[in-house]
């Protein structure tokens, strides 16, 4: 998969995408992340990339021409058709289901806004989808783009070391993850639920499912209302 990120801070995207699981996915050739700076496509002497909005008011918008030229260059860098995503607080809220869908695309182009955002006509013309990472305002789309690159990158086939670790993630079944415990020199097995030490795999699976359900019930009842639960789940919740 290829992801091109159009941003005034391409180094941030390159550096964050070089770390951890996503960095390893790039090393393994499963993912390629490229940064593109609209400033390099500005035509005036000052390399301006912002402009005042019609109607006045505070704040500036990103200038459409350098952004358009930069996006065109990013599109042309690879023959595969790209889905163009604009990160903004006005977008549809990103979910794990959306991440899965995007992870199956051959190519994404992410547009990061700065200032007050982009000209609406540019969005109408060029953008396939507008996505938000949450109901709060960041000073630019870069952190949101880095979130999306990470979430999509780690789902590329072969990116994670244990093949099943992605399917057991929080949200994959619409529920929060169960708690985890690790061996430690200092604490040994102290405070570890005894079932996890029992070696009884069926009992452990049942306990984990019940913890997932219980945590989701306590912390995110909105998720529980939408999750598809079977009879066994309902029985575990009722216990
Ligand atoms: N840009 C600024 N705030 C954002 C948010 N919450 N999600 C995505 N992009 C953004």
UniProtKB/TrEMBL annotation:
CDD domains: TrmD-like
GO MF term list: tRNA (guanine(37)-N1)-methyltransferase activity
Record flagged with keyword S-adenosyl-L-methionine: yes
Assigned EC number: 2.1.1.228
Domain tRNA methyltransferase TRMD/TRM10-type, residue spans: 1-225
Function of the protein: Specifically methylates guanosine-37 in various tRNAs.
Main localisation: cytoplasm
High-level lineage: Bacteria, Pseudomonadati, Pseudomonadota, Gammaproteobacteria, Lysobacterales
Substrates-to-products reaction catalysed: guanosine(37) in tRNA + S-adenosyl-L-methionine = N(1)-methylguanosine(37) in tRNA + S-adenosyl-L-homocysteine + H(+)
Domain of life where this protein originates: Bacteria
Enzyme class, first EC level, given as a word: transferase
Family: Belongs to the RNA methyltransferase TrmD family.
Keywords carried by this UniProt record: Cytoplasm, Methyltransferase, S-adenosyl-L-methionine, Transferase, tRNA processing
Subcellular location: Cytoplasm
HAMAP family: TrmD
InterPro entries for this protein: Alpha/beta_knot_MTases, tRNA_m1G_MeTrfase_C_sf, tRNA_m1G_MeTrfase_TrmD, tRNA_m1G_MTases_N, tRNA_MeTrfase_TRMD/TRM10
Known partners and oligomeric status: Homodimer.
Binding site for S-adenosyl-L-methionine: 113, 133-138
GO biological process, one term: tRNA N1-guanine methylation
Entry GO CC: cytosol
Presence of keyword Nucleus: no
Name this polypeptide is given: tRNA (guanine-N(1)-)-methyltransferase
């Amino acid at each position: 998969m290829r992801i091109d990120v159009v941003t005034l801070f391409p180094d941030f995207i390159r550096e964050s995408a070089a770390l951890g699981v996503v960095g390893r996915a790039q090393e393994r050739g499963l993912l390629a992340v490229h940064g593109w700076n609209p400033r390099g496509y500005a035509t005036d002497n000052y390399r301006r990339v912002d402009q005042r909005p019609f109607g006045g008011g505070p704040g500036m918008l990103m200038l459409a021409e350098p952004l358009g030229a930069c996006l065109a260059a990013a599109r042309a860098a690879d023959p595969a058709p790209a889905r163009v995503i604009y990160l903004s607080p006005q977008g549809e809220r990103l979910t794990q289901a959306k991440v899965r869908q995007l992870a199956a695309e051959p190519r994404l182009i992410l547009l990061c806004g700065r200032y007050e955002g982009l000209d609406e006509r540019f969005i109408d013309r060029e953008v396939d989808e507008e996505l938000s990472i949450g109901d709060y305002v960041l000073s630019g789309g870069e952190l949101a783009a880095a979130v999306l690159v990470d979430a999509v990158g780690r789902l590329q086939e072969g990116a994670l070391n244990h093949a099943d670790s992605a399917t057991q993630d929080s949200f994959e079944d619409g529920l929060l993850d169960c708690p985890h415990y690790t061996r430690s020199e200092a604490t040994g097995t102290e405070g570890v639920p005894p079932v996890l030490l029992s070696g009884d795999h069926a009992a452990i699976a049942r306990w984990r499912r019940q913890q997932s359900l219980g945590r989701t019930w306590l912390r995110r009842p909105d998720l529980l209302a939408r999750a598809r639960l079977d009879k066994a789940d309902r029985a575990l919740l009722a216990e």
